[in-house]
UniProtKB/TrEMBL annotation:
GO cellular-component term (any): plasma membrane
Taxonomic classification: Eukaryota, Metazoa, Chordata, Craniata, Vertebrata
Xref: Gene3D superfamilies: Arfaptin homology (AH) domain/BAR domain, Phox-like domain
GO terms for biological process, alphabetical: positive regulation of autophagosome assembly; protein transport
Stated name of the protein: SNX4 protein
Length: 300
């Protein structure tokens, strides 16, 4: 771990910026770019102020990097990315991927992704990953030149391998069942929490409205003015306490989603192992068939 990139370099995703440009179809689109800043740690330990290197990346480029790492290192559980679009949202939250709160949560998630890759003893040494951090132009061409897309296995082939492997590895089978169950349980929990948060938000809105009504009512009532003002204040305080609870719900949901995405990363490794096992069995079967043919030819 001493040689990992995270020990030699500070990596941050410091800000996000809304931009407008043309996509591959030459159509106008709005997207979010993220500023990655890096600084060498070694220079700071020697008493020198290392310069900050910075570049902008889109979410799609993070996706491209992770796809490359997943294909190139099929035996490694590659850290997941934060969600591209908000899932398991409740009424208060926006499902718009341009929503400022969602963009900020995604920025934090992208920074965590980079730090986890940089802390991995194998992934951190990948040249494409290093170029992603340091080289703004020409990086996509460099990734595509690796030909990693040709190594990517189709979903149909993976499904075929799942049902046709004769001697599956028990360790990977158990791991796959564990990740499937973990995904199912967390998905259900997130859906339940979203429903609970929706109801809490309803209570929040009701008490917030009552607080406003009582406050306005107190201004026109002479005898009950103080009582109404006090009631409105308590309604506002209660609504604020619910708002704090809802903020905590968002935080817990983000943590649960990380477990959900890691479960999918585990399943991807298991699927790749099934494919390799299937290819090995097919090769062994073909070898046995060739040997039989050779024996038949030898015996005339």
């Amino acid at each position: 771990m001493e040689d990992c990139l995270a020990k030699k370099m500070e990596i941050t995703v410091s800000e996000a910026e809304k931009r407008t440009g043309k996509n591959a179809m030459n159509m106008q689109e709005t997207y979010t770019a993220y500023l990655i800043e890096t600084r060498a740690v070694e220079s700071q330990s020697e008493g020198q102020c290392a310069p900050v290197e910075s570049l902008w990346r889109r979410y799609s480029e993070f996706e491209l990097l992770r796809n490359y790492l997943s294909v190139t290192y099929p035996h490694i559980v590659v850290p997941p990315l934060p969600e591209k679009r908000a899932d398991f949202v409740w009424h208060k939250l926006s499902a718009d991927n341009m929503d400022p709160d969602f963009v900020e949560r995604r920025r934090i998630g992208l920074e965590s992704f980079l730090l986890r890759v940089a802390s991995h003893p194998v992934l951190c040494q990948d040249k494409i990953f290093y170029s992603f951090l340091m080289q703004e132009s020409g990086w996509k061409e460099m990734v595509n030149e690796t030909g990693f897309q040709l190594k990517a296995d189709s979903r149909l082939k993976a499904l075929n391998a799942t049902f046709r492997v004769k001697n599956p590895d028990k360790r990977f089978t158990e791991l796959k069942h564990y990740s499937d169950e973990l995904q199912s349980v967390i998905s259900h929990l997130l859906r339940v929490r979203a429903r609970v948060a929706d109801r809490l938000y309803g209570v929040y809105k009701v008490h917030g409205n009552y607080g406003r009504v009582f406050s306005e009512w107190s201004a026109i009532e002479k005898e009950m003015g103080d009582g109404l003002q006090s009631a409105g204040h308590h309604m506002d305080v209660y609504a604020a306490s619910i708002d704090d609870i809802l903020e905590e719900e968002e935080h817990y949901a983000d943590q649960l989603k990380e477990y959900l995405f890691y479960a999918e990363a585990l399943r991807a490794v298991c699927r790749k192992h099934e494919l390799m096992q299937y290819d090995l069995e097919m090769a062994a079967q073909d070898l046995t068939s060739k040997k039989q043919q050779c024996e038949e030819l030898a015996t005339g």
